[in-house]
Amino acid sequence: MGDSMDTRQEMLPLGVPTGRLGSGQPYAQETMSSRVTNIASPPGFSVLTHADEPDYSYLAGEASALVLGDAVSVLASMPEDCVQTCVTSPPYWSLRDYGIDGQVGLEESVYDFIEALADVFEEVWRVLRPDGTVWLNIGDSYTSGGRTWRAPDKKNRARAMSVRPPTPDGLKSKDLIGVPWRLAFALQERGWYLRSEIVWSKPNCQPESVGDRPTRCHEYVFLLTKSERYYYDQDAVRGPNGRRLRTVWDLSTQSYAEANGHFATFPPALVEPCIRIGSAPGDLVLDPFVGSGTTALTAGKLGRRFAGIELNPDYMAIAHNRLTKEHFVQEPVTGHDDAGKAVGT
Ligand SMILES: C[S@@+](CC[C@H](N)C(=O)[O-])C[C@H]1O[C@@H](n2cnc3c(N)ncnc32)[C@H](O)[C@@H]1O
Questions:
Q1: Interacting residues of 83 by C-beta distance below 8 A, sequence separation 6+
Q2: pLDDT band at 16 (very low <50, low <70, confident <90, very high)
Q3: What is the residue with the minimal CA distance to atom 10 of ligand 1?
Q4: 163 vs 39, which has greater pLDDT?
Q5: Which of 30, 145, 211, 275 minimizes the number of CB atoms within 10 Å of its CB?
Q6: Are 130 and 226 in contact (CB under 8 A)?
Q7: Binding-site residues, ligand 1, Cβ < 6 A
Q8: Distance (Å, rounded) from C-alpha 178 to C-alpha 291?
Q9: How far from chain centre, in Å, is Cα 64?
């Protein structure tokens, strides 16, 4: 667990640890770019398939892992209190079909979707250290306005849906659903501290054809904690002229070519400040919806360990290949999918 255990016991209010502050380098959120540091000896990791009785006890030690399986069941098998920070972007409600049974996001009711995610975060709570943080990226959507399907988007084929869910109870057609805040309040009710909402402002957002409202160009990242006091290295990331980080982050979207438009990938520059602030080198960073592996890769490059969970074997293969290219593979692939095929080779 790196060198961080002792210093964490000496916490100042709001979790600023004494004796082990970060680089203090200025970090201009207006021009956030991928500014990753290569660490001399990246941690080794394995790609594992979730088994009935898996042993992930090594995650409490020195290792990293990409695990193929359902987020709730894999998390339920992980040791408690082993994760320092969780950076994740779950599927958005009713936006994409990730093409696999058991996926989150296709619930008919938005309330079921929120329950499903709250269940995932209940397991995140268990594996998160008491002084840990969660950085949860989630976008909003509108009610369907009576349409029952969504035409393929020329730029993003995965956005075509054969069905669209009915308008949620209590809402009207054309209503903005407010999914992020509904989820944030649901998590707050389950005990999470809602510490901040960060607006991810996207200068290169997709144009919209609607003429009766402004084009949406932002999403949210919620900072959630288990405790009032938590690990938060405010000096690890600074704004221009060394000022404290603010709540609006201007960052262009950035797709990972191999993900091929199948899903929205994180820009590494969105993940990096969360990891820098929320963890120290050697700590374990979790992404229960790891997709193409952006969180795992960024964590590895920053010298953190990672646990990345993904349900779809094709996406897990993308993540594995991506980390292989960046030389984060030190061990042979040990996992197989349900059909017995090796994953990630
Ligand atoms: C928005 S994408 C994450 C993209 C990721 N942030 C990246 O940078 O590539 C959400 C991912 O969650 C996965 N997913 C959906 N349901 C899941 C579940 N029950 N357990 C684990 N992963 C799931 C999808 O297959 C998809 O890859």
A1: 124, 127, 128, 129, 132, 284, 285, 286, 307
A2: very low
A3: 91
A4: 163
A5: 211
A6: yes
A7: 70-71, 89, 91, 98, 102-104, 263-266, 289, 291-292, 294, 309-312, 315
A8: 24
A9: 16
